[in-house]
Every structure is written in C-alpha cells, then in structure tokens.
C-alpha cells in the first residue's frame, strides 16, 4: 500500500507541477515581471533625492548603500526562474498528493469524481477562502505584519477545511452548523491589513494577478485531485485479485 501511495503522489505531483508551471509562465509570471519594473523604478528614485513610501506608510529617502542592503535575492528571468518555479510546484504537488493518496487509501471506493470533489474542496480551503481576506499580492504592495497574516491564513485554511468536512460528513445538524461557523468565523475576525494601503503596480495589473493566481490554484488543486483519484482507482484495481471463472 505504501508503494502505491508513493507512486500515485509522484506521478500526480509531477504531472500537476509541470502543467501549473506552464500556466504560470504564460500568465502569472509575466504579471510579476511587469510589477517588478515598477518596484525597480521606485528603488532607483532615491538616487535623484526623491522619497520612497516605506512599509510604515511614511516617506523616506535612502542612499545607494542602504538601497543595496534592502535588495533581496530573486531568481533571474529565463531558465533560473523557470527551474525554481517548476521545482517548487512539483514538490508542493507531490506533498499534496501524498496527503490525498493516504486519505484515499482509507476509503473503500475512490474514483475520478471523488478526486475532483476533494480537489475542489482543497481549492476552497487553501486558496479561495484565504484570498477573500488576503488576496494574492504583486511585488511592491503594502502588507500587514507577516506573522499576523500567516496566523490568519492558517486559521482560515484550517477552519474552512474542518468546516467543509463537518458540513459534508457530520451526521447531526449541530455538527453541520458548527462547520458553517468554522468557515465564517475567520472572516468575521477579519484579515490583518496595513494602516495605509498602497501598491506600486496599477490596480488593473493587481486585478489581473489575482485572477491569474486563483485560476492557477484552481487548476493545481482540481488536477491534483483528479489525477490522484484516477491513479488510486487504477492502481487499486491492478492490485486487487483477479477472479477467473472455472
């Protein structure tokens, strides 16, 4: 069984990672590169003595040495960016595939529709629900404290996942009601946002990136679920004993 779970996760993860990387290369990454041009222009502004809006919402001027210290490593455009994007996507997909395949091994019947349903639920929990409070952001966007954002993201993801499970599998009405509360509660608390919001990229570019990111996440999770369900069913059928009539 363990070998079957590993095989399903590796195959489904590799195929999903390649497909999602291809989609990102033609859609999301060009938007990121466009936003990086605005960020690069803002970094060079201090050389002419112009102020830059800092993370605290106030204008500051920086010298060339300080500007270099603020620079962070980023993959170069071309092969390097593509390689790291592909590697990250494949590793994430394999990890998700391991969890999903292990869960499917506990079910008596698994097929393609089962995988699609699980993939759709994962998209709701890991992408759509968090994006309702913290939408995907381009480089150069003002953001709240990263620890607060991570805590809210974790609360929203866990609450949505647990809530969906209770709504679907809960045998009693109060369990289904508790599931709805778990889904809604993080949004009632509210996602953390900076006191002063702002972004270097134009609003139209930000909206395009949100759409591209959510669409890519949808493809990731639905394809991951579909492949995991399909391969689990196929490998399970191949491993089951064949009854030959006598």
Keywords:
8 helices, 2 strands, 246 residues, single chain, two-stranded antiparallel sheet, mainly alpha
How are the SSEs placed, and which strands pair?
Elements: H1 2-26, H2 28-44, E1 52-53, E2 59-60, H3 64-70, H4 79-104, H5 112-131, H6 146-169, H7 173-189, H8 203-239
Antiparallel strand pairs: 1-2
Helix pairs in contact: 1-4, 1-8, 2-8, 4-8, 5-6, 5-8, 6-7
State the gist of this model.
It is built from eight helices and two strands. The chain has 246 residues and is an all-alpha fold. About 10% of the residues have low confidence.
Give a written overview of the molecule.
This protein is mainly α and 246 residues long. It has one domain (2-143, 194-239). The chain contains eight helices and two strands. It has helices at 2-26, 28-44, 64-70, 79-104, 112-131, 146-169, 173-189, 203-239, and strands spanning 52-53, 59-60. A two-stranded antiparallel sheet has the order 1-2. Helix 2 runs antiparallel to helix 8 and helix 5 (112-131) packs antiparallel against helix 8 (203-239). The protein starts with a helix and ends in a 7-residue tail after the last helix. 24% of the residues are buried. Mean pLDDT is 87; it is low at 47-71.
